[in-house]
Design a protein that fits this description.
The protein is an all-alpha fold. It is 81% helix and 0% strand.
Length: 339
């Protein structure tokens, strides 16, 4: 293959990776109430793009050594594609999210987990797409065929990777605000199991497609399956955002009733459009800081309601600290007295 054909084949691969990176940024932007540090979202993208594929390949290579005796049929062929591969890949991706939770305190709800999960899943999909494209190009595939494959994989397979890891991330985020280690463990295990099942179901659909051939009916089943799965992801994200809105509304109203915050805070901050379209604070930079402090206060209080008594000390101190800091910036409510 000459240089011009190689460049023509490389271009759709780079476009695919760029599109998937932009989708991660879109998911980050849509987290309206407490956006995660972009450096951590980028780190999760890199985990999905670099660390997770290497871990998955290493584990799958080790499992390949067990292709003997009664395990052989289970670990290879269709069964391997539906069970072994998906759970190995989802486990490798999930490990990055678990490391994030262990090293930081940034994930404090399902929405946060879904954003980080999208970054990991789409990073993994970007690397997978790139490798498929390189292999196809090396085998002499025409640039048009490579472009068509990149389009299909970007629209279909990448969405499934995002869905599966978002599912685990959402469950992991729910675990962070759950009471007791037993419930947290159950959330984590259930999320990983569901992520593996969703990924396996997609692989089964692809296997059925390859067996039945590219008939319109079988292709329609695959496309419909992806549309349904990605639709479920969008709905889940919207539900998580609605839940966060309600948390903000409830917790900030309680702070107003307690005399900690002025009344206008509960009327503006929980509502995204009001918050970005009204000049409720003179400085734009200070508005961003206040929004972060207020949402942190609301989510910390919400998490505190689910923490056992012997684990509530640090979170309770954080609530007191946030209240004091906000009072020092906003001043006492009308009719109130400064502390």
């Amino acid at each position: 293959m000459n240089a011009s054909l190689a460049v023509a084949a490389l271009l759709p691969m780079l476009v695919s990776v760029s599109v998937l990176a932009l989708v991660v940024l879109l998911a980050w932007w849509m987290d309206r109430y407490e956006r995660e540090p972009i450096r951590l979202v980028g780190a999760m993208w890199l985990w999905g793009a670099l660390a997770a594929p290497m871990l998955a390949v290493g584990l799958e290579t080790a499992i390949a050594g067990l292709h003997s005796g009664n395990l052989g049929p289970f670990l290879t062929g269709v069964a391997g594609a539906v069970w072994t591969g998906p759970f190995v890949e989802e486990g490798a991706k999930a490990l990055g999210l678990l490391v994030l939770v262990a090293l930081t305190r940034q994930m404090d709800g399902p929405t946060d987990g879904m954003v980080y999960g999208a970054a990991v899943g789409l990073g993994f999909a970007a690397t997978e797409n790139l490798l498929y494209g390189v292999v196809a190009t090396g085998r002499g595939a025409a640039p048009g065929d490579v472009a068509a494959m990149m389009l299909i994989r970007t629209v279909l397979s990448a969405g499934v990777h995002a869905l599966a890891t978002c599912t685990f991330g959402g469950f992991l985020g729910a675990a962070q605000v759950s009471r007791g280690w037993g419930r947290r463990f159950l959330w984590i295990v259930s999320g990983l199991a569901l992520a593996g099942v969703l990924h396996g179901a997609w692989n089964l659909a692809l296997t059925s497609f390859s067996v039945l051939g590219p008939e319109p009916a079988s292709l329609g089943v695959v496309v419909i399956a992806v549309i349904v799965l990605e639709g479920c992801l969008v709905v889940a994200f919207a539900v998580a955002l609605l839940a966060e809105h309600r948390i903000l509304l409830r917790e900030l109203r309680e702070e107003v009733e307690l005399g900690v915050l002025p009344e206008w805070v509960a009327e503006i901050v929980p509502h995204y459009r009001r918050r970005i379209r009204t000049g409720w604070w003179p400085s734009r930079e200070e508005r961003a800081v206040l929004t972060r402090l207020l949402t942190r206060l609301a989510f910390t209080k919400h998490a505190l309601r689910r923490v056992p008594g012997d684990e509530a000390g640090v979170a309770g101190l954080e609530v007191v600290h946030l209240r004091h800091r906000l009072r020092s910036i906003l001043g006492p409510p009308e009719g109130g007295e400064a502390e």
